[in-house]
Amino acid sequence: MKVFVTGASGGIGSLLVPELTAAGHEVLGLARSDAAAKKIADAGASVLRGDLTDAEALRVGAAEADAVIHVAFNHSPDLVKSVADEAQAVETFGTALERTGKALLIASGTPIVPGRLSTENDPSVAAGPLADSPLGRRAQTAQYTLDLANKDVRSAVVRLPRSVHSRGHRYGFASALIAAARSTGVSAYVGDGGQRWPAVHHLDAVRLFRLVLEQAEPGTVVHAVADEGDPMRDLAEAIGGQLGLPTRSVPAEHFGPAGAVYALDQPASSELTRKKFGWQPSHPSLLDDLEAGNYPE
After folding, report:
1. Strands across the sheet with 227-231, in order?
2. Which pLDDT does position 58 carry in this prediction?
3. pTM (two decimals)
4. Could you tell me if 151 and 258 lie in one domain?
5. What is the mean pLDDT of residues 278-288?
6. Which of 8, 208, 243, 248 is 20 to 30 A removed from 271 (C-alpha atoms)?
7. Do 245 and 187 contact (CB within 8 A), yes or no?
8. Does residue 138 sit in the same domain as residue 184?
9. Spatial distance between the Cα atoms of 126 and 105, rounded to a whole number of angstroms
């Protein structure tokens, strides 16, 4: 297949491109800068210049490809605008792909279900009190994608955990723990630190994206979860041990505006995904990577 990939030079996309090309797929990557274009080309993909706000570029990419994989996200200080830009980009793809039978895969997040592991059958938080929050808006974009199955689009949502990691690179939410520890001199956790966070290694995640691209039926939801839930205190202790810093409990506000999320227990299962796609994570766990040190500055 020819696959149009947004975020092709990013943390997930830069590993997804070689995963796809090694499997015999042709990749067209969206690049918003010269540096991104070079990185994509060096990985063996073709380049289309543009960004998530360039609707014409998105339409061109969708028209030229057999499938679209959307893993880009603009991590700007204005989170509300970033979420809105993503929604508009996905809607552009949806309109372009209607009645074509082509595939659209997007990255989303695992849901939070109080008291238990979330599963692929649990709905995203697209309604209720969180509907107008960035989390709710992103969930609505995921639901929009799934609904495209009714319009002859082979749509799928790959739910990623809060920490997508690889040694010496980014660690997802755990990167915020590292940054906070360095700036405050304390490796912190919220409350008793028993709240659990799921995680997946970058290379395990991109393999699942490829399997879903090749095998998924319209309207598929999968969980790219390797570690069902690492206690926040264990993560903080691993970080503190590598940085030579004390570990202690702090209020959620210690982590800024998003601190409330850090206090939530949010484990997730991928049992259904593993059975359906034969996906078995094989790379180091988040704790393994954190305990190895070598954190990027």
Report:
1. 163-165, 196-201, 227-231
2. 98
3. 0.94
4. no
5. 97
6. 8
7. yes
8. no
9. 18
Tokens 């210049």 correspond to: 49
In DSSP terms, 48 is beta-bridged to 30
Quote the CA–CA distance of 17 and 98 in Å, as a whole number: 25
- Strands of the 103-109 sheet, one edge to the other: 46-49, 26-31, 2-6, 67-70, 103-109, 154-160, 220-223
How much is the pLDDT for 129? 54
Residues sharing a CB contact under 8 Å with residue 160, sequence separation 6 or more, in sequence order? 107, 108, 109, 110, 200, 205, 224
* Local structure of residue 129 (DSSP, 8 states): G
d(CA 176, CA 289): 15
pLDDT in tens, 203-244: 999 999 999 999 999 999 999 999 999 999 999 999 999 999
Residue whose C-alpha is closest to residue 73's, from 133, 8, 139, 27: 8
> Same structural domain for residues 144 and 235?
no
Residue 137 has pLDDT above 90, yes or no: no
Percent of the chain with pLDDT over 70: 97
